[in-house]
Amino acid sequence: MPDAIVMTPEALAALEAELQRLETDARREIAERIRVAREWGDLKENAEYHDAKNDQAHLETKIKRLREQLLSAEVREAPPPTDVVGFGSRVEVEDAASGRRQTYTLVSAPEADPGAGLVSFDSPVGRALEGARPGDEVGVPTPRGERRLKVVAIGQAGA
């Protein structure tokens, strides 16, 4: 069995909704595209038909991947606030080199959106911050070398 994918109840609901949409509306749309393209004649030289079949294969792959994520899902509520970084924590860090401050919320991989400050708990940043306390400095491996982050404050996601 694949490794468990830790996620919040909200992430699980979003994943289920996306799977439902793909299995219903998206499948119907592609089936209609294939039906229309077939009516245009010779399938060997029918680019629309081949594009629709290719899109269908991509859709089915995505559906399979989402089903696997659902089977591997381990739903966790964000724990109550503590003084230790963990899943669901909102962490303010300061880059040791630049002094720049950023706030990250540690979430599941499906919820991650680094541009919005939502960092996967399983990412290098998430793994480095796990277990840290305010005042701790952690090292994050990057292609350009280790990046040092100092934990300034810890809060609860959504707080």
Q: How far apart are the first and last residues' alpha carbons, in Å?
A: 35 Å
Query: Into which percent range does the helicity of residues fall?
Result: 25-40%
Largest sheet: 5 strands, mixed
Order of helices and strands: EHHEEEEHEE
Strand content: 15-25%
Please mark out the parts with pLDDT under 50 across 5 or more consecutive residues, or reply none.
none
User: Strand arrangement, largest sheet?
Assistant: 5-4-3-7-6
Structure annotation, total helices: 3
Radius of gyration: 22 Å
Overall pLDDT confidence: 87
Number of strands: 7
- Quick one: overall form? elongated
Global structural class: alpha/beta
Using brief descriptors, characterize the structure shown.
single chain; 159 residues; alpha/beta; two-stranded parallel ribbon; 7 strands
If you had to describe this structure to a student in words, what would you say it looks like?
Helix content is 39%, strand content 23%. With 159 residues, it is α/β, with parallel strands linked by helices. Helix 1 (9-38) packs antiparallel against helix 2 (47-72).
Strand and helix map with partners:
Elements: E1 5-7, H1 9-38, H2 47-72, E2 73-75, E3 89-95, E4 101-107, E5 118-120, H3 124-129, E6 137-140, E7 147-156
Parallel strand pairs: 1-2, 4-5
Antiparallel strand pairs: 3-4, 3-7, 6-7
Helix pairs in contact: 1-2
